[in-house]
Amino acid sequence: MSRPPELKLQQLQYLIAITEHGGLRSAAQALNVTAAAVSKGLQELENTAGTRLLERQAQGLQLTPAGRKLLTRARLIQSEVDLAMQELGTARASTRIRFTVGVTPWISLTLLTPTMLRFAQTRPDVSLRIFDVFGSDYAALRDGSMDLAIGLAPPEEGAAELAARPLFSYEHAIACRRGHPLQQARHLEELAGQSWLVSHEIGQYKPPLRDFFLAHYGDTPSAGSGSGQIHQYRSLHMMELICNSDLLSVVPWPVIEASRQHYPVEALTLKERLPASTTCYVTRRNAPLNGCVGDFVDAMMHVLTDTTMRERFLHPRVLRSLDVIAQRQ
Predict the structure, then answer these.
(1) Confidence band, pLDDT 50/70/90 cuts, at residue 92
(2) 44 in Cβ contact with 1 (< 8 Å)
(3) Is 236 in contact with 262 (CB distance < 8 Å)?
(4) What does the pLDDT average to over 191-209?
(5) Whole-model pTM?
(6) Cis amide linkage into residue 208, ω under 30° from 0
(7) 3-state SS, residue 115
(8) What is the mean pLDDT of the chain?
(9) 3-class secondary structure for 174-222?
(10) Distance between CA atoms of 114 and 119, rounded to whole angstroms?
(11) d(C-alpha 119, C-alpha 293), whole Å
């Protein structure tokens, strides 16, 4: 028993292209193949059909009656194939990988946009969900509702189930509005009795800040002696409050550099050197570092080290305030 003739989709596409573009060469250019490939495909299609499908006439290649019939069917087949690919694309989109990342708010102001764009280029199959994380609160990472966090290392007493790997370090500064009465202060002690807006618990600060706060304000936010108080506000909108009041704040140097473009903010030049902090990427312990986690970290490292990316998105002073520690291991 002989096998029935075998029509190939590519051959039908050649027939459609020749008809729509008027010749072998123009069809080949439209399909980005060689004219020889189109000619061979057409010959194979005619051999399968057992009849001529195109004839060369004065005005160029013209369909025979058999060719016109097959063209109608070929277009229907191509239409069904296109529809099937659209449906498959919709199915793929509905099953895109969802990857949840928590970032310290100041990173949202500086590094997040170029990192997201870079990540989207390398992982078009992933839908990102991004949330703010404050301090070392990684409850969402522990319960599995977050896949990766970019922030401070978790405290030792709560780090058993988490792994933190350093990305970069940065120093802090005391921020105030431009024209603040104490803008020229040179020592922490000159700031005693002022009111503060901070983003962490007092106990999370390192000396000399922690000792200064404990000595003059007690150990909890909203505690204070005299007229000065410490208030806690976990949001980048705190810069708005600082610039419209006499509140002082402790902020990362990158925030100072980034905020100067938008807010009349200044950093005090103190004799005491404020402690540095290290930003880490934090995962659940034993979580694989390949896949989305590794790709997101690599995207951030690319932003930190690639000249073109830096010049496009980040003010040079922001990057100079960061000390890149190590690439992903």
Answers:
(1) low
(2) no
(3) no
(4) 88
(5) 0.63
(6) yes
(7) helix
(8) 83
(9) EEEECCCCCCCCCCHHHHCCCCEEECCCHHHCCCCHHHHHHHHHCCCCC
(10) 9
(11) 10
| Residue 163: burial class (beta carbons within 10 Å; 0-12, 13-18, 19+) | middle
**Please, which residues have CB within 8 angstroms of residue 37's CB and are 6 or more apart in sequence?**
28
Of 216, 244, 215, 210, which is closest to residue 229 (Cα–Cα)? 216
Determine the pLDDT at residue 28: 87
Q: What local confidence, expressed as pLDDT, does residue 5 receive?
A: 63
Q: Are strands 162-177 and 276-284 parallel, antiparallel or unpaired?
A: antiparallel
Name every residue whose Cβ is closer than 8 Å to that of residue 284 and which is 6 or more positions away in sequence. 141, 142, 144, 161, 162, 163
Report the candidate in 77, 85, 83, 56 with the shortest Cα–Cα distance to residue 12.
Answer: 77
Q: How do residues 239-294 score in pLDDT, each as one tens digit?
A: 889 989 999 999 888 888 877 777 888 899 999 988 888 889 999 887 778 788 99
Contact 30, 21 (CB under 8 A): yes
Q: Which of 34, 132, 4, 240 is nearest to 140 (CA)?
A: 132
Reported residue count of the chain is: 329
Amino acid, res. 189: E
- Residues 105-153 have pLDDT tens digits of 888 888 888 899 999 999 998 999 998 888 777 888 888 888 999 988 8
Contacts of 125 (CB under 8 A, 6+ apart): 92, 96, 97
Which amino acid is located at 15 in the chain? L
Measure the CA–CA gap between 254 and 297, rounded to whole angstroms: 19
The token duo for 48 is 């399968």
Residue 31 gets which letter from DSSP?
A: H
Closest alpha carbon to 314 in 107, 33, 160: 107
What are the structure tokens assigned to 165, written together? 């790997």
